[in-house]
Amino acid sequence: MTHRTGLAAIRPLILTWGIMTLATGLSFLFPRFDQTAFAVSRSTFPPQVQRPPDIAVERLDRPPRDRPVVGQVIDLNTASLDQLVTLPGIDEPTARSIIAGRPYRTGNELVEKRILSEAEYEMIKDRVTVRPE
Q1: Which residue of 41, 54, 70, 112 is most buried, as measured by CB atoms within 10 A?
Q2: 76 burial via Cβ count (<10 Å: 0-12, 13-18, 19+)
Q3: What is the mean pLDDT of residues 6-12?
Q4: How buried is 123 (Cβ within 10 angstroms: 0-12 exposed, 13-18 middle, 19+ buried)?
Q5: For the chain, what is the mean pLDDT?
Q6: Would you call 52 helix, strand, or coil by DSSP?
Q7: Cα(122)–Cα(107) distance, rounded to whole angstroms?
């Protein structure tokens, strides 16, 4: 048995790789006729994800949350619970702690009173203010 060397040794590998690459590329260009490239129908989702037919869509819709307008600054001394939870990283228990810790002279008091960590305060510091009462 003779051993191939050089290009003759890898030529079958190159041919195989080329054919597989071409076939893969063509399969993306020409999907099967019973499928479309990006179509997703309701039936493609598993049954546990689909809405049961006996529940009205209105019952599944959640009421929209009042979100602050971009650029709106929230005063820590007067903000409601609903306004505070719209801040990034602030959940309801944290918002209740913020309200319980009033009044504030500076926003950094949230960190001093250990209501928020430094990282949490950094996320909201541009969206909060403290106005004198």
Answers
A1: 112
A2: buried
A3: 77
A4: middle
A5: 76
A6: coil
A7: 10
Residue of 105, 113, 108 whose CA lies nearest to 133: 105
Amino acid present at 9: A
Cβ-contact 124, 89 below 8 angstroms = yes
DSSP 8-state code for residue 61: P
Residue 106 · residue 127 · CB < 8 Å: no
Is residue 79 a contact partner of residue 94, using CB atoms and an 8 Å limit? no
Express each pLDDT in 21-35 by its tens digit: 776 666 656 655 445
Give 58-101 pLDDT, tens digit per residue.
665 555 555 545 558 999 999 999 999 999 999 999 999 999 99
Q: Can you tell me the distance from the alpha carbon of 60 to that of 55, in angstroms, rounded to the nearest whole number?
A: 8
